Amino acid sequence: MKRLNLRPRGRYRTSLLIALVLLVVFSALSLSLKQSPALRKVQGLVVSLTAPPLQGLEYLGRSVKRVWLEYFYLVGLRQENADLWHKIEEYRQKEVRYQEALQAQTHLEALLDLKRQVALPVIGARVIAYDPSLWSRCAIIDQGKAQGVKEGMPVLAPQGLVGRIVEAYPQYSKVMLIVDRKSGADAMVQRTRVRGILQGKGGNRCSLEFVPKSAEVQPGDLVLASGLAGLYPKGLVFGKVTQASKKNPGVFQEIEVTPAVDLSALEEVLVVQVASLTLSAP
Question: What is the pTM of this model?
Answer without folding.
Answer: 0.63
